[in-house]
């Protein structure tokens, strides 16, 4: 194996990692998706120059804590695995910009992720989450947050600190009311609330959702739509509602 900056072993049918990969001292991109790996070696955390790591779509049971040593990692793909927890050490990935952990069996996520001040996109849809840590208000660079198809009944009160957030998808959760802190987000453009348990919307002032361009309220049992929703429509915001 000739040392290089990219190793692509995706969909190669492997169930174990060849230690010869360690010869790639300056490795920048490592693709291991679509294989049969159930475990990973601790030495995976030794690639100090790694920027992209794709581990998705295989029967991995656990992720090593040593992933937290990948201090220059920018993109981490850990979707469609067999994991039920994420390592606390992921909060040490100070350069991380994208984290995709969709389609797993996560019932909670580490509070340490709130330290990821460079994270721009977080995808956690298709898990079993019931709550999120209050620390997630610390994700000050976050622009997209995808939480569809979980079991969230409420959001952290700190979410009004996500001042860079543009897209928030909460479709098919267990919300019973609109989290009012979202109305204060200055750059939020798309908000998807479809298929929750919301039966009423609070009265909000004309300053609510100052940048909203799309609001999806389909499949909600809303007998009354408050005036601020109509104000959004008059402003040009697309509001989707289930026909009566």
UniProtKB/TrEMBL annotation:
SUPFAM superfamilies: L domain-like. GO terms for cellular component: cytoplasm. The keyword DNA damage does not apply. InterPro entries: Leu-rich_rpt, Leu-rich_rpt_typical-subtyp, LRR_dom_sf, LRR_domain-containing, LRR_R13L4/SHOC2-like. Keywords: Leucine-rich repeat, Repeat. Residues 81-173 form the Disease resistance R13L4/SHOC-2-like LRR domain. Signal peptide: none annotated. This is Leucine rich repeat (LRR) protein. It comes from Kribbella amoyensis.
